[in-house]
């Protein structure tokens, strides 16, 4: 049976003003950051569905049956508001299901969840990720800070192995440098196979019948530079995480 994965997030739009003396003009661009993760998991035999931020507002499942179409939900660089403010609620004040509560129940009933770091996961830039205020916090192995949790390291910082675990199978080389991560606090029940600056880098937990994991840096630039994304261990670590999370 093929294991089905849904990645929500990892997209952004930029609107730039160019000023040249007395004149100005504008450009816009749409970009995504899923390609390394998608390639790694598809090579590992997983069925991968990508739901970018601007579509997740309406297309992320509103029902448990919808979530159960997937064996693993990945949240990466997507703010909680994207799920908490569906169009009908924001524009017409209509009551809709709380999809953050659904994710919690999905895990407790046997689903798998992976949160990957970024400017809008965990707490994120200016604490706008807001996941610390949602039921998703209850089924993560780390406690999310209530403030901006970004740890920026333009000089590079290296994750280090902290304990043996199946998610590290085949990772027998030194970890590459990363350029930043989300600072979190490990919960008492968490298993921490990898740390960065004595903070959780990979954290694992079991909740109800399901499992969850936190990967506190990005899966793409800028925090995960090319040397990290092209490292042979990149595909191994994400495939190992997917295998452990869905192996129930």
TrEMBL record:
**Keywords linked to the UniProt accession:** Glutamine amidotransferase
Question: What protein am I looking at?
Answer: Cytoplasmic protein
* InterPro entries the record matches: Class_I_gatase-like, GATase1-like
Q: Using the record for this protein, list the coiled-coil segments as residue ranges, or answer none.
A: none
Which source organism? Enterocloster aldenensis
Whether Signal counts among this entry's keywords is no
The superkingdom of the source organism is: Bacteria
Matches recorded under PANTHER family: BLL2462 PROTEIN (PTHR37947)
Extract the Gene3D superfamilies matched here. Answer: 3.40.50.880
